[in-house]
Amino acid sequence: MSDLPQSFLAALEELDQLRADALFRLALADRAPIEAVEQLIVPALEAIGRGWDEGRTALSQVYVAGRFCERLVSGVFPAGIEAGGERPRTAIVVLNDYHFLGKRIVSAVLRASGIAVLDYGRMDVDELVSRVAADRLEVLLISVLMLPAALQVGALTAALRARDLPVRVAVGGAPFHFDAELWREVGAHAMGRTAGDAPGIVRALLEEGR
Ligand code: B12
């Protein structure tokens, strides 16, 4: 069983979706969904991303693997149903980016830990500042995978400060893995490496802000 992640990566690289699907289901037999996602899907997509960076993998392979993993993730973490009652003061967004998988997983983990979260989808800086103000957010989670989008978090935190909005910002995604200091440089209050970090971060930021 220990070579499951390796076999899953090989199946994705060969675009063998039937085999990848069977291996993922095998992983789910003795793992929680979040463990199966973190142990199989996340490292496989990271390896495929490196392959593209180094010229070993075609963009079409990255695309097909990404879309396929999106289907697997949607199967175990269906899109959220907005909770009734008081409107949550925590939201998650993809900033100027089209990599949505991380956001989907982080939202699911938060919901599973009893934290209600608004899903803002994809936004740019101006739209996001307006929504944060309108919803009087306490915590904003941002998922970005492109370096230019990560740098825009700096423009966002500056705009939030300029409007004196007390929201606390947490970031996650590949650029923050590649450069461990980037989250501080863009003015975020916290950074998470995995979706499993999100509930602890939200609770700590809510606590700090009160
Ligand atoms: C799949 C993929 C795609 C798919 C996306 C499909 C989709 N619907 O999401 C497609 C093919 C569309 C795509 C397109 C592109 N991609 Co792409 N892509 C990837 C790849 C291989 C995997 C990303 C992924 O889904 N990972 C799985 C998810 C679950 O992981 P994750 O998002 O990191 O989230 C985890 C953690 O980071 C954390 N997390 C994430 N967000 C947050 C937030 C908070 C608050 C917390 C606590 C935690 C947290 O929790 C998650 C679970 O643990 C990465 C490689 C990589 N190393 O990430 C490249 C990568 C991100 N892509 C890259 C590039 C360049 C592109 C393109 C420009 C390619 C091109 N030339 O067209 C386009 C641009 C699209 C755009 N404008 O946004 C580069 C970015 C480099 C850079 N420096 O900016 C990467 C890093 C590849 C590389 N090594 O060069 N891509």
Can you give a write-up of this model?
The protein is of the alpha/beta class. It folds into two domains: 4-76, Methyltransferase, Methionine Synthase (B12-binding Domains), Chain A, domain 1 (Orthogonal Bundle), CATH 1.10.1240.10; 90-209, Cobalamin-binding domain (Rossmann fold, 3-Layer(aba) Sandwich), CATH 3.40.50.280. 58% of the residues lie in helices and 12% in strands. It is built from ten helices and five strands. It has helices spanning 4-13, 17-29, 33-53, 59-76, 101-112, 125-135, 147-162, 174-178, 182-185, 198-209, and strands spanning 90-95, 118-123, 139-143, 168-172, 190-192. The chain has a five-stranded parallel sheet, with helices on both faces. Helix 7 links the parallel strand 3 and strand 4 (168-172). Helix 1 packs antiparallel against helix 2. The chain starts with a helix and ends with a helix. It binds cobalamin.
